[in-house]
Every structure is written in structure tokens, then in C-alpha cells.
Task: structure prediction
Amino acid sequence: MALVLLYVVVLVLVAIVLFGVASLLFGRGEPLPPLPRGTTPTVLPASGVTRGDVEAVKFTQTLRGYKTSEVDWVLDRLAQELDLLRGQLSSVHAAAAADEADERHAADVDPEQEPE
Result:
């Protein structure tokens, strides 16, 4: 019985030494210190969101997934950006349609014909 206890004690001591050596060699494995409580790594530019910006978004992990407020914020920002871009696109389409209508109207009026 004493021999088994001695083996267990030696095994635990070897495990502690190996863990200590590995910790010293490899460190904690974190390239950056953790963020202070209450801050978020979730960042998007004020305007002009690109694919790279969306791919770079990181959310704080919680017990059941990601922090809901951060995900909601990102989705709201992306929705605003989409609305802005769709508004700009529709104004460009409207301007192009107006230019096309003006050109058709100018083509319908014959410049050679004098007004009566």
C-alpha cells in the first residue's frame, strides 16, 4: 500500500514539474493581454464598411456563445450601411433615368424646325 502511495506522489510531482517547465517554455499562449472588463474588440468604421472590416469583427465570448449586445450592434451598423448604399444607388439610378429622358426629349425635338 505504501508503495502505491509513493508511486502516486512521485507521479504528481513529475506532473507538476512538467507543467511548470511547459508553462515557462510556452507561456500563457496569449499574444495580447485580455481586454479590460466592459470593453469590446468589436470595431467597424463609421462609414464605408468593406468585406475585410466584416471579416475582422471579433465578438466577446460568453457562456452561451457571443455577447448579444455586440452582435446586435454590428448587425445594426451593417443595416445602416446597406440602407445608405441602397439610397445612393437609387439616387444614381434616378439621375441616370432623368438624363436618359432628357436625351430622348431632346432627340424628339428637331433642331432644324423653327418654332411657329
About this structure: The chain has a mean pLDDT of 83. The two ends are 124 Å apart (CA to CA).
